[in-house]
Design goal:
alpha/beta; 36% helix; 153 residues; 6 helices; four-stranded parallel beta sheet; 4 strands; single chain
Length: 153
Amino acid sequence: MVVFLHDYGSYSGEVAQVLPHFLSRGLAVVSYDVRGHGRSSGIHGLLPSLSALGEDLQLVLDMVATLDVSRYSAHVGANRPNTMEPPPLFLFGNGLGGLQALFYAATLGQDSDLKGIVVQSPLLSLDQPYAHYERSSVGLFGNILGFLFPAWP
């Protein structure tokens, strides 16, 4: 079982890029929209704390743990023994989702059934890639707008 965590400014449909890879290997995939993204509630683009994202992920993992895995076991067939044990659980995070996966694993996930994480270009720093905007008129204008309208979509 793979829980896919999308990038900032994206949505759960981002999983379509890697879905064939997982499904061809008999892995079930779950994805959801992070608060403020896709069809989730909240102001679009406005993120809560990493702790809140971790708590949201824990709710999803709790829901995944209640799924009926009998169909999953039958689908995989020879790859997994016919058992009622839940399938191994992995997190796959892209960008912001990578940061979310790493944060979860280091904090809330230490006592979980998580078997591993895969991160793709995890959002570990905004320092370098966007530094040139701060020195431009775009950066100044963005800072003014951000100050005047912090929750503007």
